[in-house]
Every structure is written in structure tokens, then in C-alpha cells.
Write a structure and sequence with these properties.
There is one protein chain. The chain is mostly helical and 171 residues long. A three-stranded antiparallel β-sheet has the order 1-3-2. The protein starts with a strand and ends in a 13-residue tail after the last helix.
Amino acid sequence: FEGGFTLEAAEAVLDLPDSCESTWAVDVVHALVQKSLVRRVSQKRFDLLRTVQEYVHTRLSRLNPQLPAAAQTRHAHYFAALSESAAIADRCADTDNLVAACRRAVACRSTPDALGNLLNAWAVLRLTGPFNVALGLADAVAELPGPGVHRYRIRAFCAPSFPEGFGGPEI
């Protein structure tokens, strides 16, 4: 996760084995909070320290090199499926997750996840900025294969959301 997470997001992204003693995401998150590896930052949100993220990524990679990519795919699926109201909830708390999920989906060439995350990131970034990040995401997604995915449609769809002088279809 980037910039924190909710229990709902953790449930969607964690892949807990059946043999795990705590097979519920809430139990895992609670245990990590008790061990000071995860911080509770509000009633609904948690945060994972960057050093802990790096450690977990390294450990997962050593166990199975596909595990980090699988977690990132689940992350992208979850955030792509959010409604616009969920994306902007809690004062746009998931901005970093949406941007990271969109970038990862583009890197994996996952057009559906990239588009879903772009739309949700756009909903947030039109309220908070930075506008250049939104335009960069739109340009990156426009380069992906797929029906209806090309620069003009994406930029034309997104540009009206920005104040005058920011973005727009430059085709």
C-alpha cells in the first residue's frame, strides 16, 4: 500500500493461506499493530512503515518471486473497482494508492486495471492535484492496447475536469 490502507483494502489485497493461524485480515492487521509494524492513523485507516514494506517485499520475493507481483495485481484490482465516491472518501486518503495502482497496471500492461485506476485517480486529482500527475497517468494509459484506449479520448474525457490552462487534448 502507498499512503495507508483500510481493513477493507487489506482484506482484498492480502492472500492468507488456509494454514495460517489468523485467516482473517482483521486479525493479521491487529497483530501487526500490536507488534508496532503497522500504525493506526485514524479510526478507519492504518499505515505501514516504508522499511517494513521493503522488508516484506524482500521476504516475499525470497519465498516466491511471483508473490509481490500477485499482491500488486490484487492491489490494482481492488482500487480499480472502487466507486468514485469511495475513491474520494476520507478527504481523498487513497490518492497515493490510486496513483501507484495505475502506474503498476500500466507497467504490467493491464488495460482494464489501468483504466479503472485512472478514472478513480482522476476523480481524486481533479480535487487535490497535482494536475501534471493526472495528465501523466492519462498519457501512460493511452499508450496501452485495447479498444477505445487512445490519447484523444482519454485526454478529452479528463481535460474538462481541470482549471483553464491545465491539460486538454493536445492532439
